[in-house]
Amino acid sequence: MSTHETILEVEDLKTQFFTEEGVVRAVDGIDFDVRRGEIVGLVGESGAGKSVAVQSILRLVEEPGAIVGGEIRYKDDLLFGLKASADDPQERTEREEMLSRTEMRTQIRGREIAIIFQDPMESLNPVYTVGSQIEEFIALNREVPGDQAREIAMDTLRDVGIPEVESRYDDYPHQFSGGMRQRVLIAMALACEPDLIVADEPTTALDVTVEAQILNLVDDLQARYDTSLVWVTHDMGVVAEICDRVNVMYLGEIVEQAPADDLFHDTKHPYTSKLLASLPRPDRTVGELDSIGGVMPEAINPPSGCRFHSRCPEAREVCAEVHPDERPSAEAGSHHTVACFRDDAFDVGYWDSPPIETEASGGFAASLTAEEGESG
Amino acid sequence: MGLFRYATRRLLQAIPVLLGIATITFFLSNAVPGDPIDIMLGPSPAQEQKAAIRAKYGLDRPLWLRYITYLGDVSPIWLSTVDGFPYVAPEFGVDLGRSIHFGAPVTEKIKERLPVTMLLMGSAFTFALVTAVPLGVISAYRRNQPTDHVSRVVALVGVSTPSFWIGLELIIVFSFYLGWLPSNSLVMPWNLPPAADQAGLLSVEFWRIAASHQVPVLQHLILPTISLGTLQMAAITRIERSAMLEQLSQDYVQLARAYGVRDRKILRKHAFRPAQLPVITIVGLNLTTAFGGAVLTETVFSINGMGTLILTGVLNIDYPLIMGTTLVFGLIFVLGVILTDISYAYVDPRVSYGDQEA
Prior knowledge:
The complex is a heterodimer. Chain A has a domain of 91 residues. Helices cover 31% and strands 24% of the residues of chain A. In chain A, α3 packs parallel to α6, α4 packs across α6 and α6 packs parallel to α7. The longest helix of chain A has 18 residues. The radius of gyration of chain B is 25 Å and the shape is globular. Helices cover 73% and strands 2% of the residues of chain B. Chain B has a two-stranded antiparallel sheet. Chain B has a domain of 210 residues: MetI-like (MetI-like fold), CATH 1.10.3720.10. In chain B, α5 crosses α9.
């Protein structure tokens, strides 16, 4: 599958929120791409910047937030890109070939890239019927005659497994369960026939059995419609289930990028290891889950050096001083990139550097923050 | 299924409410110190004359008997009275008694005054809604921009200015100095000049007269409408703005944006309809409480409506008039609440007609 052409390319994307407390660097220079027919995962804890990253792709970030740098290319279109201004080299302006707001709305949103939000309970308008909502988006994003939109909507609803579509079509969202609403939202995305669907934690609000059904459904439909997907989640189990390639995000940065199998069997970054270790597993009985010590720092004032060093069990002095960029891993090859000095791709003297006390290694500060985390 | 049944049930529930209103107003107005007959006859009246009038209005009977008689007269189909003593027999029609001050049946007075107040209220709320809803939507859409600030100041001034003061200022400027608009009373749209009746309903002349008659109607309406409607406009603008702001941040509105729906359509369709619930609540409740404001407006503009009628009743301790007008206000309030609930269910499919409560 991975031999297909690249349809989405994100390069050094930076999205910031200008708040009263300071500039929140929610997404701070991430690179990733999506190829045709592929499911790409975006994994990380809450607050890692995953949602902001996907909203940036559709340029949905609103005041006080803004995309401040980087490039987003979709097929032949430039969704976002800056250049140095002619008058003032410090000033950066939008490039001419960048799509205008209107072009984003009429050519990209819904038509080429569709989105599925996290909370199915909140994503459907309570005062309009389910059918009419899908129909509206079809009519808007596909060149079909009016009466055909209804047929397409019904067919897609059948595809995602809504029973008795004819009678449920004119029902209101409150008459649907959470899992059914999520199916409706998936149908909504599929019915517009986009080439890329961005799913922002679409199963987080659902219970586990429903989640499993939805994941199977997505796997099926993705193969049938040959749509690419960006799947945002914090759940490594979900990643294992459906993703082809995975990007692990921590505090606005991507720290590891690899095909799903490699990520699980040849984990390079300590953060990824900790995420995997914190996964509950039915085949092992443990007294306490191995959670990641501490909480994610604020994106207003990220830690110096490697952003994960404050919680990393492997942290050494060099980690607090030098910031690791993302590089292809020395042993695993070019398709597996990592931003950790423990990899031989880096030559900063990690192994000679003395280890430092961190929250993860159980100092006084760690027990404090851990308690805060539990009570909050 | 439920609309008709729901409305019927709510109307039946209104009966005890109205009974309560009748009871409370009866005893309250009788507890007020002062004697309507004294007010009527002036200082040092003849005792025989006083007694005769007392007997005429039934005020010489004991309070409990007057209460039962009154309930019987007021209820459309229940009790009847013979020689002042109640017995159970079907008697149809509402009798609110005879006004001591006017010497005429209260029902007749209300029939004459209610349409005037209805016209004023309808006009004031139309004015308020037509201005406030777009203003609220625009200031939500352009929040924290100049348009929003202007609308905020207008709303603040509108909420904090007493309606009678606005009325007086309007009269001073537009009637007294400029002489553009009349400052007193209303002209009813259907009270056509006699020439129209002579011309006959089917003639062209009739419709010409009827049309030109609407000009003074509007002229008389403008100032009282602004005076009574400003407060409502200000309140509705603020509610509309905050309701729209809340809707614009909802996931389903964001989703519409993510699917390429134009901003205008999002405002008009996706955010607007769910935003109307709090607006309906406020309009529904204010429609009824604004009758209180109507008393002031009617006084300032010398309009012979329900407001001035109830005022006359109170000033003259005219028991039947006070009770009759209060009952009508109560009925309007109950109907207003029912209508509000029904329009809720119309706007929001999640609100059912509440069969489970029955």
